[in-house]
Amino acid sequence: MASHGVARTNRSSTEEQKQQELDKIAKYRDLEGQVRSLVADASFTPDLLKLTAKLLRLNPEYYTIWNVRRRCLLTCGLSSKPSPGSSPSKALQSSSQNATTTTSSVASSSSSSTTTTTPPNPASQTTGKSGTTVDDDAAQAGLGDGSGTTDDAGCTEAREKDLDTLRSELGFTVPLLMEFPKCYWIWNYRSWLLQQAIERLQPQVARRIWEEELGLDTKMLSKDRRNFHAWGYRRNVVSHLESPALNGKSMVESEFEFTTKMIRVDLSNFSAWHNRSKLIPRLLDERKADEGARKKFFDDELVLIKEGLNVGPEDQSLWYYHQFLMLDLIEHDARPTITANLNVDERLDYITTDIVDIKDLLEDYDDCKLIYEALIECTLALSTLAKRNPSEEERVDVETWLSKLQELDPMRRGCWDDMRRQLGLSTK
User: Fold this and answer.
1) What's the pTM?
2) Cys-Cys crosslink for 206: which of 197, 267, 297, 366, Cβ 3.0 to 4.6 Å?
């Protein structure tokens, strides 16, 4: 049996290998125990920071330890005050008493990446054994409440120290990110470090750090073009680089070109197509595109996606972007649109031409269910846009395509039968 192209085999271990695994687990548990003990005593010292580094190299999925590392930095690592107007860093919950880890992943020196789309927010305020909150710890470390504005020698020295600390922390996570590129907690920790740069450093210095981060993200996407973690992170980095806090300006043109580059390399890059669709409304607004420019832009996008479909009509990511363009014609009143000034007849002409082009694909790919689904959607869109019921010819075509879909995808028979009933067709 194979999974993702990798054959599964039964692995047997010798007694020596089993003992080595047990030794690794014992060392890991001992290290974890040391960290828990220091956290329980609210001893957020450089020694604890070193221990968290060892533990995270073994198991970067242990999100509680990332929170402990934040607390160490707030207590003994970062010394400058947050800039005026920025919100002081919130305390971070250790939750060490209830955290659990998977020792088997440690034994193999790897951990599986999470697949949820939104990680929990690790930031929350807690009270240690000493009765002080983490905000109190931060105040004791000289972070204050962000009210200091004097840029004297002491403040400059503190900022330089913080710059070194932040760069060191970012450097610490790079090898982990390369080995575990889909670990939420590494990306999340880097985001927190970058936010600290905004709060504690001069804007021009902080901006350089954020620009370097964009470069790292580009490198990560060159290694794995469809890493949706990196794509989501990129949108966050770009939004900050565009913000007034970093003296930013719009990057929509360069980011749009980046999606074009990534699509040219790999047509199956769903994240690049998605990012492109989100950039287009802003792009056209900032270009102050008139009716002619918008129509040309839409035509160019149609050509681009149809070129891709001619090469790989079985690629679902291409059909998603094709659907995005068709919905721009159909649902133009309910969304930011490229084709705002087209009249109904022009929209119908676009869809009719598109149906003809899709039918041409059937000559070489008559067993691709995505083509039939697109034909049904576009055909029904004609009647919706014209505010009429489907014609008899359209009903016959749809029934034929539904029969083919039922043959190609029998597991979704209920879906096809529902569609038949909605159109008043007999179920099979």
Assistant:
1) 0.77
2) 197
